[in-house]
Structure to design on (324 residues):
């Protein structure tokens, strides 16, 4: 953390922190871990997310304090786990655009949109960056902070299994457990649990899975969602599952939303491939091995366009591999 970032954090008294829309464990864990730490520093804080906290994250201490629309005056806005300013959604109101913005993130596609940018591409999660920040500020860890930050680490590494999981991640996890975080509780709440409706939705989406070269893809229609009663769009479990197919190097799930006008696309890749660039080219973002974007258009239109772009991108990567 450079001195300008340390100074702005110490000088600002009223801080608004915002995580990304459609929040995952790292968005919420880093938002709440940071929020608890700001309280310890004696700051007035507001925590915001443009979408509600999903029920299975409601074990996180302090989740009930998160608002969709912040109110009040602030000296500083902090974005967490967002690779561009649009990821803050409606929580980042127009009137906040004149305030200094601190961008804390770990996505390779981060657009450095802040007045200050604390972007660490080596970090497996934004929660890890928050941990290092608290360590530098010599703030004590307590069980609520530890539980929130370990949630971010566990969910973004899918239980310490991703290529991003470094020795540093494991030693930070060690310190968070020693400070009172419960690894079994986090794993059972986030990784090993999903609504039955999600499983029924997979049962409908899996028969349509198609292999195109080394890309395994399927789609989730709004009709399937209506039939299972699963209202929210979070198909990351499904796309992770597709990538376990031996025949696939890349998996894609296309999920219809907003009355068929938009499609949310989730990409996953095996190490050695890069799906961040194709997501970025479409206006989204993410990591080399896990990325996403929402594209306007009908399901068949978006599917054809995205699969063609993906083919081109993978072919270019293959050529580059052969040369190097
Ligand atoms: P998931 O498929 O789990 O929703 O997302 C995988 C990764 O891609 C996450 O790191 C997430 O932040 C990023 N991502 C997903 N959707 C979008 C999007 O619409 N825009 C951007 N910038 N990133 C996204
Ligand atoms: Mn993250």
């Amino acid at each position: 953390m450079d001195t300008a970032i340390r100074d702005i954090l110490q000088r600002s008294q009223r801080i608004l922190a915002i995580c990304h829309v459609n929040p995952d464990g790292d968005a919420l864990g880093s938002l709440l871990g940071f929020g608890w730490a700001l309280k310890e520093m004696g700051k007035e804080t507001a925590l915001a997310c443009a979408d509600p906290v999903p029920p299975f994250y409601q074990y996180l201490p302090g989740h009930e304090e998160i608002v969709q629309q912040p109110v009040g005056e602030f000296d500083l806005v902090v974005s967490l786990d967002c690779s561009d300013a649009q990821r803050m959604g409606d929580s980042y109101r127009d009137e906040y655009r004149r305030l200094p913005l601190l961008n804390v993130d770990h996505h390779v596609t981060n657009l450095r949109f802040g007045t200050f940018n604390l972007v660490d591409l080596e970090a497996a999660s934004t929660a890890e960056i928050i941990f290092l920040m608290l360590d530098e500020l010599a703030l004590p860890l307590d069980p609520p902070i530890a539980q929130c930050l370990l949630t971010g680490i566990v969910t973004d590494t899918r239980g310490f299994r991703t290529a991003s999981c470094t020795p540093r991640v494991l030693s930070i996890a060690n310190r968070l457990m020693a400070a009172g975080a419960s690894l079994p509780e986090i794993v059972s709440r986030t990784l090993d649990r999903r609504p039955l409706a999600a499983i029924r939705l997979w049962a409908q989406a899996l028969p349509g899975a198609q292999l195109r070269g080394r890309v395994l893809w399927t789609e989730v229609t709004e009709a399937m969602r209506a039939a299972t009663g699963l209202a929210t769009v979070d198909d990351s479990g499904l796309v992770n599952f597709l990538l376990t197919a031996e025949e696939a190097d890349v998996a894609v799930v296309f999920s219809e939303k907003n009355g068929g006008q938009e499609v949310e696309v989730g990409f996953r890749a095996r190490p050695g491939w890069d799906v961040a660039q194709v997501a970025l080219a479409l206006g989204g973002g993410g990591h080399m091995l896990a990325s996403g974007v929402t594209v306007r258009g009908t399901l068949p239109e978006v599917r054809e366009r995205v699969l063609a772009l993906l083919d081109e991108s993978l072919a270019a990567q293959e050529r580059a591999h052969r040369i190097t």
The mean pLDDT is 96.
